[in-house]
């Protein structure tokens, strides 16, 4: 039996930080894991930018509250759930994810946690574990399941490599160029066609 492990942002919902950048006008926040392979470097940069502009957790949560799933995402998730288990494996944070997961019908989510001070300022973050996406797939395989993994960014690559089947979904050209070994899918219908062979 196959279980599907999927990224969240760029697959089921728009990129949170791009939306924050659009709302605040801070162009530097448009950088995501599609651009920067080093997640820790990216997050440290984001926290520094938030500090420089006096932005706190509630400012980001206000933006997230306005984000809706990508067109077709909920229908696709329903289609998957009729066939197998879906686990969303994301580098987002539990403090960001609640309104997004509610709209998606609450699939299982593995993600990280933010650390705030008494003024609601983001001062740190706690990763669930090092290389969490790959280790999630590895753990599921240890239970004698096969795993199909899909994502769109550099931080998904170790998960795709560990999975029995890895798929890039709507990735940018730089990720496609760097990892040509993975099939590229650009819409949910084509994704269903591939997954139908396994689910």
Radius of gyration: 17 Å
Assigned CATH architecture: 3-Layer(aba) Sandwich
The number of helical runs is 9
CATH class: Alpha Beta
Instruction: Please state the oligomeric state of the protein chains shown.
Output: single chain
pLDDT < 50 stretches = none
Shape: globular
The topology string of helices and strands comes to EHHHHEHEEHEHEHEH
Helix vs. strand class: alpha/beta
As a percent range, the share of helical residues equals: 40-55%
Q: What's the β-strand tally?
A: 7
Q: What is the mean pLDDT? A: 95
* End-to-end C-alpha gap: 8 Å
What is the percentage of strand-forming residues?
15-25%
Instruction: Give a quick account of the main beta sheet: strands, pairing sense, barrel closure.
Output: 7 strands, mixed
Q: Count up the domains.
A: 1
Query: What would the CATH topology be?
Result: Rossmann fold
Trace the largest sheet across and list its strands. 4-3-2-1-5-6-7
What would CATH call the homologous superfamily? HAD superfamily/HAD-like
Question: How is the topology of this model organized?
Answer:
Elements: E1 2-6, H1 16-24, H2 39-52, H3 57-64, H4 73-81, E2 86-93, H5 94-103, E3 108-116, E4 122-126, H6 132-141, E5 146-151, H7 157-162, E6 165-169, H8 173-178, E7 184-185, H9 188-195
Parallel strand pairs: 1-2, 1-5, 2-3, 5-6, 6-7
Antiparallel strand pairs: 3-4
């Amino acid at each position: 039996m196959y279980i599907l492990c999927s990224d969240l942002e760029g697959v089921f919902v728009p990129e949170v930080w791009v939306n924050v950048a659009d709302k605040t006008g801070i162009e530097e926040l448009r950088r995501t894991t599609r651009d920067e392979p080093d997640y820790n470097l990216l997050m440290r940069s984001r926290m520094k930018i938030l500090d420089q502009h006096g932005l706190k957790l509630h400012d980001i949560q206000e933006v997230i509250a306005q984000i809706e799933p990508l067109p077709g995402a909920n229908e696709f998730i329903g289609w998957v759930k009729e066939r197998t288990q879906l686990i969303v494996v994301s580098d987002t944070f539990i403090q960001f994810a609640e309104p997004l997961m509610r709209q998606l019908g609450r699939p299982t989510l593995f993600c990280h946690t933010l650390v705030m001070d008494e003024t609601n300022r983001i001062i740190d973050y706690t990763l669930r574990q090092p290389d969490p996406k790959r280790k999630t797939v590895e753990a599921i395989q240890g239970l004698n399941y096969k795993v199909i993994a899909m994502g769109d960014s550099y931080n998904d690559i170790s998960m795709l490599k560990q999975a029995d089947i890895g798929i890039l979904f709507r990735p940018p050209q730089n990720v496609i160029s760097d990892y040509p070994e993975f099939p590229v899918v650009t819409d949910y219908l084509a994704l269903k066609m591939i997954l139908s062979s396994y689910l």
